[in-house]
Amino acid sequence: MAEQKIASIITGGGRGIGRAVALRLERDTNIIVVGRTEADLASVCREISAGGGQAAYLVGDVSDQATAERAVALAEEKKWQIKNLICNAGIGKSGPTESFDPEVWRQIMAVNINGAFYFVRACLPAMLGQGGGNICLMSSIAGLKGFARSAAYDTGKHALVGFARSLAVEHGHRGIVAVPICPGFVEGEMTDRTIRGLMSRRGITESEARERVARQNPQRRILPAAEVAEAVAFVCAGKVPALSGHPLVLSGGE
User: Fold this and answer.
1) Judging by beta carbons within 10 Å of its beta carbon (0-12, 13-18, 19+), is residue 185 exposed, middle or buried?
2) Which residue numbers are catalytic?
3) Tens-place pLDDT, residues 2-59
4) Burial letters 206-221, b for 16+ CB under 10 A, else e
5) N-to-C CA span, the chain
6) 186 and 231 in contact (C-beta within 8 Å)?
7) What's the whole-model pTM score?
8) Lowest-pLDDT range, 38-52, 156-170, 185-199, 232-246?
9) Which domains does the chain have, with CATH numbers?
């Protein structure tokens, strides 16, 4: 593979959707993955390097503004232009609103909302200076509708939709395409926690709980992370910039 001069920054890039996105986008750009677990990030970079691509990782907490600044500095150090930013890092915890721990609420907002803001703010000057870039904010179907026992997660995901819409209006004339990606349930740790929670609350088996989750999608399936990665790659290809500000919903019609 010829040396690329453009790069994609992916937060939460060590596992799940973030990993799938990194492995998909490495076909077209260099990759910088950001996350908290070095072993996962290093594994992604090794896989990309083994395929002839170029990748680097940064260990950090996205709720710390300095992590975003360090990621941009890493791209500058490597002389890579930041073409794509995928704000994928997120956490979630469910529970009744009336007894939800305020500290957990603050943690969710710090990662899911503040983290996205810090990375967008850090990347925008470089993107604007080069004539534009693509920003994918990993929202959820929960960013478009409400779920019981999910006030904190739903609020954070709704905020990302609003953030993308604001970016689209503010910077669309300067080449910024900002799209909130809104999948339904995706295979991974978060969906596994949902399944375990259903098992506990309803007294049902794992297969029964998984079936209930899958039924949320009219296609009766839980999405593979690779399918979400393809949607991100579609946005980052830049062929339909009019998508900017519009949720890209991956729910099978839910």
Assistant:
1) buried
2) 153
3) 467 999 999 999 999 999 999 999 999 999 999 999 999 999 999 999 999 999 999 9
4) eeebbeebbebbeeeb
5) 40
6) no
7) 0.95
8) 185-199
9) 6-184+224-249 (3.40.50.720), 185-222 (no CATH)
Q: Which helix (H) or strand (E) holds 42?
A: helix 38-50
d(CA 187, CA 201): 21
Q: For the chain, how are helix, strand and coil distributed in percent, rounded to 5?
A: 50, 15, 30
- CA 202/CA 176 separation, integer angstroms: 45
Pairing of strands 55-59, 176-183: unpaired
Tokens of 251: 């729910």
Residue 171 backbone phi and psi in degrees, to 5? -125, 10
User: Largest Cα–Cα distance of the chain, in whole Å?
Assistant: 56
Separation CA 98–CA 92 (nearest Å): 17
- The answer to whether 37 and 62 have CB atoms below 8 angstroms apart is no
Q: Is 16 exposed, middle or buried (0-12, 13-18, 19+ CB in 10 A)?
A: buried
Whether 30 and 54 have beta carbons less than 8 Å apart is answered as yes
Q: Which element (helix H / strand E) includes 65?
A: helix 65-77
Decide: residue 118, CB within 10 A, 0-12 exposed, 13-18 middle, 19+ buried. Answer: buried
**pLDDT number for residue 3:** 65
- Give CA angle at 32 (27, 34), nearest 5°: 130
Kindly report the CA angle at 101 between 98 and 106, in degrees rounded to 5? Answer: 120
- 253: tokens are 């019609």
